[in-house]
């Protein structure tokens, strides 16, 4: 069984229990610009 099959089974199981998957979202706050992220990456 590969990782996509495990994920599908996991999601299907919880959907049957009445849960809804959340939409994917970035982990960073929207106020942080991509420019700031690129500058920080270049400093590391």
Topology:
Elements: H1 3-16, H2 34-43
Description:
The chain has one domain (about 5-44). The model has no long low-confidence stretch (mean pLDDT about 80). Helix content is about 55%, strand content about 0%. The N and C termini lie far apart (about 40 Å). The protein is built from two helices and no strands.
Pick out its properties.
2 helices, 44 residues, mainly alpha, 0% strand
Q: Number of helix segments?
A: 2
Please outline the major beta sheet: none
Q: Return residue spans where pLDDT drops below 50 for at least 5 consecutive residues.
A: none
N to C succession of SSEs: HH
β-sheet strand percentage: under 5%
The number of strands is 0
Q: What's the rounded overall pLDDT mean?
A: 78
Q: Give the structural class.
A: mainly alpha
From the alpha carbons, calculate the radius of gyration and give it in angstroms.
17 Å
Level of helix content? 40-55%
Distance between the termini: 38 Å
Summarize the structure.
With 44 residues, the chain is mainly alpha-helical. The protein has one domain. It has two helices and no strands.
